[in-house]
Design a protein that fits this description.
- This protein starts with a helix and ends with a strand.
- The protein has one helix and 24 strands.
- The longest helix has 15 residues.
- The strands form six sheets. A six-stranded antiparallel beta sheet has the order 4-5-6-7-8-9, with no helix packed on it. A four-stranded antiparallel beta sheet has the order 3-2-1-24, with no helix packed on it. A four-stranded antiparallel beta sheet has the order 12-13-14-15, with no helix packed on it.
- The protein is mainly β.
- A hairpin with a 5-residue loop joins strand 16 and strand 17.
């Protein structure tokens, strides 16, 4: 009797200590100057689906997956009209590559030329191409802006958004961060649900950022950054109930660009950004099991996303 009881207790202990469940979704890993890989969590291996060149740097913006076609941006050609006189203007490109995930064929699907003139006028020419390289759409626009351009990892761009701004939408619900606070918008009504309660640091960031709605739209997770001078505090992942506005900490640590799995049980995120071997930037790509708070590393890349 004691022997059987001991076996049962051992089995129960092993079940409680089970480190994690395995997500059923695969993950796309974007690696600058290397390529895009699809990571299969069931077997713990990846396969390349797009081979990059030594000059292709993936842009820091969401990819788009429609059906079996994946579209993403890479850094285009950068030239200065007159290096001695920047007021003469500058030009730079964004190229967009599309990949058929079934056949793994890829093509240049879009090209955008930005020309900055006199520091306040942005001219944009956009061209869209079909898989045969034929232009299917072209547009030319011009607009006035007020210094909202910036640079990141030596790439210059103009995004017309405040720094540290991000948002997430599920159905008609949206959460977004602005100046360290988290806001919730639902059918036209917007309220602040998480207050920074301090001085926002526009250079290094302090407060609450990168909110993500869970797939059911009941709560949101977000990053807490204590700020450059708050040495006694540490960054963490937190959550807020959208109805009660109750906030609780999930786990300490830096959880960069958190993304929910389709079933809402796992978070995909980045940590430990550093320079890679090819003069690019990489991070540890990790998963967090929200039921057990167990996290583990699946690879290294400059960006990652769930494959829908």
């Amino acid at each position: 009797m004691i022997k059987y009881l001991s076996i049962i207790l051992t089995i129960l202990a092993l079940n409680r200590c089970s480190p994690r469940q395995t997500p059923t979704q695969s993950i796309l890993l974007f690696k600058d100057k290397d390529g895009i890989y699809e990571y299969d969590l069931a077997i713990g291996k990846d396969k390349i689906i797009f081979k990059a060149t030594d000059t292709q740097i993936f842009l820091d913006e969401p990819y788009r997956l429609i059906g079996d076609t994946l579209t993403f941006g890479v850094k285009g050609k950068l030239t200065f009209i007159d290096t001695a006189n920047y007021s003469a203007g500058e030009k730079y490109f964004k190229d967009y590559i599309s990949v058929d995930l079934k056949s793994e064929n890829n093509w240049l699907s879009r090209k955008i030329l930005y020309e900055v003139v006199d520091h306040n006028t942005l001219k944009i020419r956009s061209q869209t191409f079909n898989p045969k390289g034929i232009i299917t759409f072209q547009s030319d626009t011009s607009m006035i802006f007020k210094g909202s351009y910036s640079s990141y990892k030596r790439h210059t761009y103009n995004d017309f958004k405040p720094r540290f701004f991000s948002k997430s939408t599920v159905g008609k619900k949206t959460v977004f961060s602005l100046r360290g606070n988290i806001y919730f918008a639902d059918q036209g009504d917007t309220i602040k649900i998480v207050d920074c309660k301090g001085n926002f640091d526009p250079k290094f960031g302090s407060g609450y950022f990168e909110p993500q709605l869970d797939p059911t739209g009941q709560y949101a997770v977000f990053r807490y950054l204590p700020g450059f001078m708050k040495f006694t505090e540490s960054p963490s992942l937190q959550k807020v109930d959208l109805k009660t506005k109750h906030v609780e900490k999930i786990k300490s640590g830096d959880f960069v660009e958190p993304l929910f799995s389709k079933d809402g049980q796992f978070l995909l995120f980045k940590r430990n950004e550093r320079q890679g071997n090819k003069d690019t930037w990489i991070s540890d790509i990790k998963l967090l099991d929200l039921k057990t708070n167990y996290e583990w590393k699946i690879g290294e890349a400059n960006a990652a996303s769930w494959k829908e």
